[in-house]
Amino acid sequence: MILILRPHIKPNGDHSGKFDAYVGDDFICRSREPLFDGARVLLARGYNPETLLTTRHEGKQFDNFKPAPIGKLAGLGAREDKDGPRIVKHEPMQDAPNQRRVEPHTRVAAE
After folding, report:
1. Is the C or the N end of the chain the one with fewer CB within 10 Å?
2. Beta pairing, strands 52-57 & 2-9
3. Where are the chain's structural domains?
4. Sequence-ordered alpha helix ranges (H) in the chain
5. Is the separation of the CB atoms in 39 and 52 below 8 Å?
């Protein structure tokens, strides 16, 4: 399975640092870590933990990562330190107003 990534652009035109992730036309999440957060969303939706998952930027012909099982990816996250980014065990964030890692998707009705 491939999560297709689109940069999330703020209304002022700036890149927010987050990506909107889709499987086909189905919105999965908006996140700075769409591979890991997307895996958690897919697990919560009942996908098999053994299903292989990767990401690909919209319009590209190649994947960003070697596919790995959703169950494994869901337990991981990324942290950056003085040596650069590294993969770490996932630590859930405490919910605080305006500090959600994964934003819920809301559809806006066409007017």
Report:
1. C
2. parallel
3. 2-89
4. 34-44, 70-73
5. no
Sheet strand arrangement including 2-9:
26-31, 15-23, 2-9, 52-57, 68-69
pLDDT digit string, tens, across residues 25-72: 999 999 999 999 999 999 999 999 999 999 999 999 999 989 999 999
Cα–Cα dist 12/75, whole Å: 34
Counting every residue written for the chain, the total comes to: 111
**Strands 2-9 and 76-81, sheet pairing:** unpaired
| Cα angle, residue 40 at apex, residues 102 and 109 outer, rounded to 5° | 50
Q: How far apart are CA 79 and CA 7, in angstroms?
A: 20
DSSP annotation of 70 reads H
Pairing of strands 15-23, 26-31: antiparallel
